[in-house]
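Escalated from tier 1: adenosine-5'-triphosphate holo job.
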Amino acid sequence: MISVEKLGLAFGSGADLHKVLHEVSFSVAEGEAFGLVGESGSGKSTVLRCMAGLYQHWQGRIEIGGRALGRKIYRERCRLVQMVFQDPYGSLHPRHTVNTALSEPLHIHGIGDVDARVGQILKKVGLDASFRYRYPHQMSGGQRQRVAIARALILEPRILLLDEPTSALDVSVQAEILNLLAELRERDGLTYIMVTHDLGVVVHLCDRVGVMQHGRIVDVQPSEALVVGHGLHPYTRGLVDATRDATGRAAA
Ligand SMILES: Nc1ncnc2c1ncn2[C@@H]1O[C@H](COP(=O)(O)OP(=O)(O)OP(=O)(O)O)[C@@H](O)[C@H]1O
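Tier 2 regenerated the structure:
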């Protein structure tokens, strides 16, 4: 369903040219959850940002359902691909109620039935009607991330780009949000690409994982391979071992 071919991106120019992505290629099937892992600065978020239209000066080709994705954010694209960020506080407007945050995309896209749609999406992400007129500061981190997920889903996209969606949350809440994401994918047949530094999250939620180092994909594996530990690229092996050392147990 998604094909990324030779994605490249650089910042700066001349002597200050800093190449951040080097011919990144991978594909993701419809309904699949694909993880992107790798050390800090390896380019994971940049890949998502190119796909979301937040960076437009990339090279290469991104196709969704056989059609090339343009570089800019446009109406049709918003109904196909949405992104969820790490920090729900930053991604929600502080002076907009949940109702405003969720209605706005519907108004922009000329979609009717706003009241009913907002009610349904709140229910879908596990928030009752009392949240509808709250502001971001009147909610917990987990509740805010539920609203951010609801906002990403209100236009019924087929693909969610998830950039460390649980890493800003308390450990106790992380599992709730991961379970919600798993449930939503199952129910609606969504396709996910998820950036995370947590191999446990990959094993829990993703079917396959792409491993990035210095702006390149160095390994693609089924997620179980991280648990079994066979046939891994040496860099992937190192990430798995580091997780084991840090937690005293396997990534799963
Ligand atoms: N707007 C920008 N201008 C210049 N360099 C940038 C910009 N955005 C990202 N970079 C650089 O691109 C590289 C990749 O960053 P990116 O955020 O994609 O890494 P990451 O793997 O997601 O890291 P992390 O896990 O820390 O979020 C880094 O070296 C970063 O400094």
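The chain has two domains: 30-55+70-80+157-252, 92-155.
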